[in-house]
Automatic annotation (TrEMBL), chain A:
Protein name as catalogued: ABC transporter permease
GO function term, MF aspect, one: transmembrane transporter activity
A UniProt-annotated Pfam family: MacB_PCD
Primary residence: membrane
TrEMBL record, chain B:
Domain ABC transporter: 6-230
Keyword Nucleotide-binding among record annotations: yes
A Gene Ontology term for the protein's cellular component: membrane protein complex
PANTHER family listed in its UniProt record: ABC TRANSPORTER ATP-BINDING PROTEIN YTRE (PTHR24220:SF648), IMPORT ATP-BINDING PROTEIN (PTHR24220)
Coiled coil: none
GO molecular function annotation: ATP binding; ATP hydrolysis activity; transmembrane transporter activity
UniProt protein name: ABC transporter ATP-binding protein
Domain of life: Bacteria
InterPro entries: AAA+_ATPase, ABC_transporter-like_ATP-bd, ABC_transporter-like_CS, ABC_transpr_LolD-like, MacB-like_ATP-bd, P-loop_NTPase
Keyword annotations of the record: ATP-binding, Nucleotide-binding, Transport
Keyword Nucleotide-binding: yes
Any Pfam family the entry gives: ABC_tran
Amino acid sequence: MRRLSGSYRSALIIGVQGIRARKLRTLLSMISLFLGVLAVVTVQAGASIAERALMSDLELRSGYDGTLIIDVMPHEKSPAIVTETVKGSDAVALIATQAIIGEPGVSPINPGAAPFDQGSWGTTDICDDSGNCVPGPPTGEAIEVALTAVTGDLMTYRPLRHVSGAWLDFSTVPSMSPRLVINEEAAKGFQNHQVPAEMRVNGAKANMTPQIVGVVNDGDVQPRAYVRHDELTNWLPAASMSDPNMGMPLQVMTTKGSAVEQVLTAKLRGAGIESYANLTESRKQMEDQLKLMRLVFLSMAGLVLLIGVAGILNVGLATVGERVEEFALRRAVGTPRLLLAGIVLAETMLTGLLTAAAAIGVGVAGLKVVSMVLGSREPLLQGVQFPWDAGVAGIIAGIVAGVLGGFIPALRAAGIPIATVMRA
Amino acid sequence: MTQPIIELAGITRILKGQEEPRTILDGVDLTVHPGQSVAIVGRSGSGKSTLLSILGLFDRPDQGTYVLDGQDISRLPERKAAKLRSSHFGFVFQRFFLLKHLTAAQNVAMALVNGQGWLPRRQRRARVLEALDQVGIAHLAKNRPTRMSGGEQQRVAIARALVRDPRILLADEPTGALDTETGTAVIEALLSATHRGCSLVLVTHDRDHAARMGRTMSLVDGVLTERVPV
């Protein structure tokens, strides 16, 4: 490791001596700076936590950053082309359809797989004599879900959050009783409305008896179920899965530039099927959203920090005024002007660093307390860790404040004439 | 004879910024050889401290030449002057200028921690203790100035001046704040440095102390003349 030069070491040694000799003044400087650094740490920590949460939500809905999503327009040949192309690759095809789970012939309580709390879907309004209406109990006896058949492990591209049970197992033989993983909205429907479990899908040869194996949070407000594609095709001919009249979309998730992308695009073009590729850029999207918010808060934190800088400047000038003889004497024994300025800057920078350490400590402790107290109510704060970049921001803020606050006192110290010691 | 360590020729210093410029030093010539002790006496305001400031590179002459150890340093930039102050000079002032928050050893070490080279802590400590030992107060190394007498404090200041083995010691009325007995002891400590080849320029009002120096110069109205002992 390269060792510090004599000047830097001298400045540090003398700076530490100065801080130890003037503990109260150092403390006063720290108090004025503390709030500023804490504001920077808090803003940065808040922004980082919000960024993570936002990123996590975006990834939940749109997939991991860099995922290429190819939307294939409905066509009778599209399911066959897509499933054949992605077979044996890392790419995952998602084929969407609708399913009604309930007794044969009964209507769903949420037609069109509508969210359960949205309006009065599936209910009949009950009105009093004066014409005031309230939603009545659901009229149907089945639950309709958006059914997504997946050809592989979707989790590779979309971080669905596990809630209970298990995720789809692709290593086993396809079951004749399709295994479903439902989202939280669908789970809410099944919890509130007891319906016999038989699944109707348009175009299927017969009704299926599904097994609900798990619940995930997919960020979707619509009740949805995920099923293995091969388990669904036991009952549903591939052609019915992309009925142009039904407008059911087909999606392929892969990585940009992969062989699947090139082969699939070529095959679809050859068959005259339109497709659109979109690259998931969650981070970019999120940064755009956060940029303005972060700028506003950092500006506010910067203002608070400036007050801290003014405090350091004030105390620094008073301290240099008190130490005129010391600085003149140091010059007399050969200390260059630059090092005198360095000594003052070292003191203010060390003060800034100490303050930053204290502010970061308070930030870490505060976040822990907030997480413990509010974690049960706010999932975002559950087990949240103090972001390292907030710590770095605090240290930088402390050093910058130290340099800014110490700059003018350093110039004053460097300009003290040596003759001061002669005239004393 | 050996080459002079200090040669001043025609040094003039004029104080400006007042209604009329005032000549503080008027064509001062001074030669000091290694190991030589020189006393400069004169009334208050005669320019003794200004002369010492120029000798110690705190101030620059308006005219004349200053040759230090064979090198003309009359117009030296501050950065180089700081280096020379560190390598060639030791300073002792009337007020001791010890930092109260530091121990005697740390006060002496101040001259070593000045950005002009770097000594490891062990070597630094050895040099400090040696300097304190030279002035007979090594046992007070860990004491703070507030717990020392005036004489002891001035010895610490002398140790601080000696710790870099200077070629020249400049002392500005070092006994001014001390009683006669303690002052004599301080002069002894300063003179002992000349036995090791260090030159001493002492500004003093005390005729007895001046008489103990090898030469005595008198500064009257900015003009320096040699006093011949009678």
